[in-house]
């Protein structure tokens, strides 16, 4: 007999007390590899998982829904679920969940004495015991107890143990390998220089010749695979229990690094993890016929892995759990092979036994019986191993504090259930997956769903899942709203599987939860919900095959499905988001591209014979909208705006699919579109959608298919529609469609379309405008007020000019003069001008006219026409300056909000278009078109912003929709002005009027202002800092004064000013070196303001400067100064404070802001934020620091006002040296601890924070996007 290495555990023995532990490894916040080793301590009431199928009575227990303590399991399978540990609680989107209690972890006593393995064996009769009973052998003498001198000395008490040092620790780089024998299993698998099959074969040969050394190398492999460089000697293996060996390895573990192979980054360690798992599986596979049944290898390996999996060291626990779970998976594969062989042997035995006596071979019958008995014993052996490991490892580790370990357990139990469902697909095992569905970590929840997915996909296994489905169905449905999108996607797919095999268990409310997800902003979730919709609602109806229309045409098979789709869209009440519904279904349901079926429903009348109801007006509108959305996505291949994440580059196959779809839809709609336009010509909503269809055509098909007549008919329809309709959306869509048809890239149809365009513009728009204008003027000259028809004709013609001017150059028809004259008349003689709406159209038309003039000048410059360019530029310049002057006058008008808003938007857009970037054009004549705003214009713009945008008193008489529309307009106005600031088109200082509203208007404009501050800081940090101070000083001057002309420092307004300063300070981020000069300039500007007199009056001796309280606001920025800069600022303050200070100023409350500011500069040097870069700064002596202070002399910093308002990029001063702050010794923390918060949130400081808008499935595209709370980190967001 071979001698056992270490303590061997027999599979038929009960679980040893030292491994009968609490399912949750006791870990506090700082408990991990840094803590002293805690031995295995006996826990009572270990988990018992029955192998047999539970009786039905188990689920009818009256305590079915009660939560039991952590260490106990009630007789019922699911009702006895342990209450979740902290990692089982997580935040999800709203879905009702019952609260669950926290488990109480029993503290482990600090005793190192381990009970010996029980020697008594009983119960199962194995093949080896049977042979020994039949052939008794002389037993070797019993092993004597090791002498006292060789025994392990008991560990010292906790108080007497040597303390681990806190000195400098040399951390091993992640790629540095453990210094081991090059021939070890660990190095062979890590380097991958030897094939796993060959490596396993070599180990088996070694095992056959010398079991102890082979087992020792395997044990060493698991130790080294955990990142431990300790070595197990043969002496340790022969004389020490496994628990003692593990304790010894724990003491030699490199606890400072926190790294071990399974979590190391890099391709090498990713490959090692794969090889590690494959090695375990391959080893069991190669040993499946004999070695795993020798009661030596598996007993010792399982004993070691069980002990390691319960270690306090997470590296041991993680690695051993992975090895144990993979070992169980490999044993499941072996069990399947044994099961197949057992079935084959049983069939052969039955076949041989049923033969007649004269044909029966008794020797073969006996051999089959012996083989069957041996296979049955092997199956029992494997099942005992699986049962023991499940109770000893899985039951304890599926609730481990490390999410990676919990994920491993859930992934592997799913494999066992799928492969060995006769043994594992049982409610006593399924309950562990059900409980873990509530895990806090998304990856663990995802593994649970992935484990259940193949089980529900099998028709064969659905009967075993009925009870589990009824118990955890609500939880699975709730997970479709999971905050982790991957989890939500798999949850929806699992609900689809439940719907297929357990259709009756899902209620209508459950289905509605999934229905709503087709409008989700996440594309994968929406498409998964679309698949659910296909399975639940869009089921083909075979009875509809013989239905015909009134005209005799046969209805297509998708007709009832499209009717259901339209009804679903109407009932969802999200009529503006049809594109999202289409995107959810277009890749999974062919009906979304059945253009013929859709148009037949619109054009063909139903036959009363088949009880088919016609579509009502709402259904027709919805169907047309969905049809156009389908056409748009099929022709472009682009998902709707806002449905992320962004799609990858389309593959060749996808591009080919888009081209084919575009060709098919063009061939179909070329024929039917004129009929659709005729039928719905009186309905603006339907007409708008139908008119957009040609924008997605393959226009070359008009010529290749000889369909020029259809093109001419379409152009005539457009002209007729423009002539008769006055709806803005209809006219705008007509203009864009006509622009698409007249594109010069479509040379085959350009000439034909261009002729029709000229005819349309001249006869339908310009001629009617001239006629309407003449009628208007004739009425005024006759002293008669124009009637409603004349007014409508003039306003309608002006609308058409403005809309078509935005897409087509109408300069050749010379309408500029009359349009501009109308604008001037609106300012001087309002009674002669058209209504305000008409004047606004004139302003838009003139704006687009100037844009077309600029475009024409650029084309002439590119063609090399010298004199023609100069003439065109001079004419455009004259028009530009006259128009801008007229817009300025419009902004100054009183009681004309519509004029002022239109003029404001126009001016901002013109400043962007005609900015100094025109100077970069190769033709220098274009630089004359640059228009720069003067102070008067900027003052008018700022005044409009203050009076129109920043309004804090809401009008109660407006409904909610009107308020949203008004807010949208104001946000656009603010964004237009902020663009001018951040892109250098106006001086940065003009942004102060916007920045000062950051806190007060945070809920409505906070995202815009924050982005503007960030962009301005990127352009020029110093100018941005000056603008911050300017906004603070402007707000300070607006504060109400007391009777003594002092600012009340305890007032709410003053506290709001300090809050704004704190917001600005946070926006600088953590890198003080990067913002060094900007922060120092900010302090200097603030000091100069604080000591300045009010209204130019001189400050008398011993008078308190009137703006001195501003220093209290300025103190909010001192934590952004470097230590040496604080001293410089203090010297600057003392230098500028020229007035003599009273000796008793500390008793005078008026001087307290000065003392407060000085204290903030002198206090907390050790806590001052230093440079956030990763450079190492050398230490300096006092002399070097004084020289550095001189280099950063505040008086030498530029304060040129021209630079403040200029557009040059500020070059940051390079400061290479910095004196490092003395660091305190860093205390050790457990690896699982979250990083400390650097800046506490405002919620923790007691400040009121506006709640973020609830996440919607889709959001409108506003000028800016919302942001989270008061997140003022140093990030940048782009302007929309």
TrEMBL record:
KW Coiled coil (keyword) present: yes
Biased composition annotated in UniProt, kind: Low complexity: 92-107
One cellular component (GO) term of this entry: chromatin
Basic residues composition-biased segments: 1220-1229
GO annotation (BP), single: sister chromatid cohesion
Residue ranges occupied by any SCD domain in the UniProt entry: 394-479
Top-rank taxon, per record: Eukaryota
Coiled coil: 358-385
Biased composition (Polar residues): 132-142
InterPro entries named in the record: ARM-type_fold, Cohesin_Scc3/SA, HEAT_SCC3-SA, SCD, STAG
Keyword Nucleotide-binding: no
Residue span of region Disordered: 78-176, 1167-1258
Acidic residues composition-biased segments: 1187-1203
Matches recorded under PROSITE patterns: SCD
GO molecular function: chromatin binding
Keyword terms, alphabetized: Coiled coil
PANTHER family: LD34181P-RELATED, STROMAL ANTIGEN
Record-stated family: Belongs to the SCC3 family.
Descriptive protein name: Cohesin subunit SA-2
Originating organism: Cacopsylla melanoneura
């Amino acid at each position: 007999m071979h001698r056992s290495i270490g303590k061997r555990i027999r599979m038929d023995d009960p679980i040893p007390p030292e491994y009968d532990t609490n399912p949750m490894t006791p870990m506090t916040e700082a408990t991990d590899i840094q803590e002293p080793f805690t031995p295995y301590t006996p826990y009572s009431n270990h988990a018992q998982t029955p192998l047999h199928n539970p009786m039905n009575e188990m689920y009818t227990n009256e305590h079915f829904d009660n939560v039991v303590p952590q260490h106990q399991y009630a007789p019922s399978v699911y009702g006895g679920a342990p209450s979740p540990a902290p990692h089982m609680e997580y935040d999800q989107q709203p879905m009702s969940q019952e609260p669950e209690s926290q488990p109480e972890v029993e503290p482990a006593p600090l005793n190192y004495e381990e009970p010996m393995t029980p020697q008594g064996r009983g119960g199962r009769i194995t093949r080896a015991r049977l042979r020994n009973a039949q052939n008794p052998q002389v037993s070797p003498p019993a092993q004597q107890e090791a002498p006292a001198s060789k025994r392990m000395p008991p560990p010292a008490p906790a108080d007497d143990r040597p303390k681990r040092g806190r000195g400098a620790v040399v951390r091993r780089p992640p790629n540095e390998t453990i210094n081991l024998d090059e021939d070890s299993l660990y190095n062979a698998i890590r380097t991958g220089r030897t094939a796993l099959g060959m490596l396993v074969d070599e180990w088996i040969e070694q095992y056959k010749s010398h079991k102890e050394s082979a087992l020792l190398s395997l044990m060493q492999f698991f130790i080294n695979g955990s990142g431990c460089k300790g070595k197990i000697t043969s002496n340790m293996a022969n004389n020490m229990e496994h628990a003692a060996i593990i304790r010894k390895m724990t003491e030699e573990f490199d606890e400072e690094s926190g790294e071990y192979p399974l979590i190391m980054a890099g391709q090498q360690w990713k490959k090692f993890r794969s090889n590690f798992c494959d090695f375990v599986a391959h080893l069991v596979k190669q040993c499946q016929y004999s070695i795993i049944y020798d009661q030596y290898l598996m007993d010792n390996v399982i004993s070691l892995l069980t002990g390691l999996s319960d270690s306090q060291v997470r590296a041991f626990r993680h690695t051993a759990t992975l090895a144990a779970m993979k070992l169980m998976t490999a044993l499941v594969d072996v069990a399947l092979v044994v099961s197949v062989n057992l079935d084959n042997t049983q069939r052969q035995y039955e076949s041989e036994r049923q033969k007649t006596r004269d044909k029966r071979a008794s020797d073969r019958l006996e051999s089959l019986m012996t083989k069957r008995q041996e296979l049955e014993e092997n199956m029992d052996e494997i099942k005992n191993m699986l049962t023991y490991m499940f109770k000893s490892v899985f039951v304890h580790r599926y609730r481990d504090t490390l999410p990676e370990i919990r994920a491993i357990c859930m992934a592997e139990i799913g494999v066992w259930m799928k492969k060995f469902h006769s043994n594992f697909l049982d409610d006593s095992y399924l309950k562990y997956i059900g409980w873990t569905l509530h895990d806090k970590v998304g990856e663990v929840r995802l593994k649970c769903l992935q484990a259940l997915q193949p089980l529900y996909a099998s028709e064969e296994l659905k009967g075993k899942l009925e009870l589990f489905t009824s118990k955890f169905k609500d939880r699975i449905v709730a997970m479709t709203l999971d905050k982790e999108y991957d989890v939500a996607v798999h949850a929806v797919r699992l609900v689809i599987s439940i719907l297929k095999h357990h259709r009756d268990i899902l209620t209508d409310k459950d289905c509605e939860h999934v229905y709503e997800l087709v409008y989700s902003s996440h594309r994968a979730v929406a498409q998964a919900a679309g698949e659910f919709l296909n399975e639940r609602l869009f089921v083909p109806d075979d009875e509809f095959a013989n239905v015909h229309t009134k005209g005799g045409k046969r209805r297509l098979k998708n007709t009832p499905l499209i009717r259901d789709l339209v009804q679903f869209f109407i009932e969802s009440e999200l009529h503006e988001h049809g594109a999202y519904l289409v995107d959810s279904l277009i890749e999974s349901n062919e009906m979304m591209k059945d253009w013929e079926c859709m148009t037949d429903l619109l054009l063909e009348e139903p036959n009363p014979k088949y009880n088919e109801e016609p579509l009502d007006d709402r259904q027709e509108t919805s169907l047309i909208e969905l049809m156009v959305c389908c056409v748009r996505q099929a022709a472009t291949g682009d998902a709707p705006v806002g449905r992320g994440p962004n799609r990858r580059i389309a593959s060749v196959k996808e591009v080919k699919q888009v081209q084919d779809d575009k060709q098919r839809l063009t061939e179909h709609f070329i024929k039917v579109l004129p009929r659709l336009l005729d039928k719905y010509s009186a309905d603006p909503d339907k007409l708008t959608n139908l008119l957009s269809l040609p924008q997605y055509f393959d226009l070359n098909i008009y010529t290749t298919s000889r369909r020029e007549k259809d093109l001419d008919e379409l152009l005539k329809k457009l002209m007729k529609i423009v002539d008769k309709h006055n709806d803005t959306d209809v006219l705008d869509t007509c203009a864009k469609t006509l622009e698409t048809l007249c594109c010069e890239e479509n040379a085959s149809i350009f000439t034909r379309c261009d002729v029709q365009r000229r005819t349309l513009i001249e006869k339908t728009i310009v001629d009617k405008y001239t006629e309407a204008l003449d009628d208007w003027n004739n009425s005024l000259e006759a002293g008669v007020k124009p009637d409603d028809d004349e007014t409508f004709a003039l306003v309608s013609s002006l609308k058409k000019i403005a809309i078509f001017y935005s897409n087509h150059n109408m300069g050749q028809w010379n309408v500029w003069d009359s349009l501009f004259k109308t604008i001037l008349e609106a300012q001087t003689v309002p009674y002669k001008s058209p209504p305000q709406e008409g004047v606004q159209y004139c302003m838009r038309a003139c704006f687009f006219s100037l844009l077309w003039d600029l475009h024409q000048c650029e084309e002439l410059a590119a063609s090399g026409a010298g004199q023609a360019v100069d003439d065109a530029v001079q004419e455009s310049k004259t028009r530009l300056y006259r128009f801008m002057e007229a817009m300025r006058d419009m902004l100054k008008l009183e009681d004309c909000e519509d004029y002022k808003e239109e003029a404001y938007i126009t001016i901002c857009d013109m400043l962007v278009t005609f900015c100094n970037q025109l100077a970069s054009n190769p033709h220098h004549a274009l630089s004359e078109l640059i228009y720069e705003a003067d102070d008067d214009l900027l003052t008018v713009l700022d005044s409009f912003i203050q009076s129109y945008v920043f309004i804090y008193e809401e009008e109660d008489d407006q409904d909610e929709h009107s308020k949203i529309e008004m807010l949208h307009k104001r946000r656009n106005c603010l964004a237009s002005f902020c663009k001018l600031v951040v892109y250098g088109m106006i001086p940065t200082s003009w942004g102060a009027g916007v920045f000062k509203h950051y806190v007060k208007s945070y809920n409505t404009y906070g995202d815009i202002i924050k982005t503007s501050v960030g962009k301005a800081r990127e352009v020029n940090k110093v100018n941005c800092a000056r603008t911050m101070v300017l906004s603070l000083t402007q707000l300070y001057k607006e504060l109400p004064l007391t009777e003594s002309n002092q600012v009340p420092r305890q007032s709410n307004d003053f506290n709001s000013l300090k809050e704004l300063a704190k917001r600005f300070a946070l926006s600088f981020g953590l890198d003080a070196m990067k913002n060094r000069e900007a922060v120092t300039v900010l302090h200097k500007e603030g000091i100069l303001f604080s000591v300045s007199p009010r209204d130019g009056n001189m400050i008398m001796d011993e008078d308190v400067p009137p703006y001195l309280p501003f220093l209290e606001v300025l103190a909010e920025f001192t934590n952004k100064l470097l230590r040496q800069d604080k001293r410089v600022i203090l010297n600057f303050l003392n230098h500028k404070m020229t007035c003599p200070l009273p000796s008793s100023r500390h008793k005078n409350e008026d001087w307290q802001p000065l003392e407060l500011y000085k204290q903030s500069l002198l206090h907390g040097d050790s806590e001052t934020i230093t440079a956030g870069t990763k450079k190492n700064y050398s230490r300096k002596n006092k002399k070097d620091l004084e020289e550095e202070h001189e280099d950063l002399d505040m008086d030498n910093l530029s304060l040129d006002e021209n630079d403040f308002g200029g557009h040059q990029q500020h070059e940051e001063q390079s400061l290479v040296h910095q004196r490092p702050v003395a660091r305190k010794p860093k205390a050790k923390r457990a690896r699982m601890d979250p990083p400390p918060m650097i800046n506490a949130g405002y919620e923790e400081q007691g400040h009121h924070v506006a709640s973020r808008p609830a996440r919607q499935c889709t959001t409108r595209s506003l000028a800016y996007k919302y942001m989270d709370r008061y997140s003022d980190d140093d990030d940048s967001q782009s302007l929309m």
